[in-house]
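The data are quoted verbatim for completeness:
=====
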Amino acid sequence: MFPKAGRKIPAAFPKGGATAYADTIADVLRSELGDSHRAHKTLMRWTGANERTAKNWLSGVNGPSGEHLLRLLRNSDRVFECVLMLSGRQPILSRNNLEELLSVLTNTVQVIAETMHTDDSLPKQ
C-alpha cells in the first residue's frame, strides 16, 4: 500500500517550501508584468486560469502548478529561469536572451569597424 501523498515541496527548494516558491514566482511575475489589472488579464490569457487564481499568484498566496506552470513557462522567460534556479538546475540562455546578445555583439562589431575605418582615414603623425 502506498502512503498518502501530501502537498509538500521537495527539500531541494529554499527554506520555507511552498511559501518560498509562491513568493519567488510572485516576485518574478510582478517584476515582469507589474501588479495591475492588466497583469491579471495577461496571466489569465497566458494560462487559462481565472482572475482569482492570477491574483493569488501575483500576491504570493499560491504558486502555479501543473498545466498552469507549463503555460507560464511557455510565455515567460523569467519564470522559466526562476523555475530552473529553484530546481537547482543551471540557468540556460533562452532564445530571447540569445537574440539580445547577438544584437549587442553585432552593434559592438559595427562600432569597432567604424572606429577602425575612421582611424585609417586620419593622417598619421
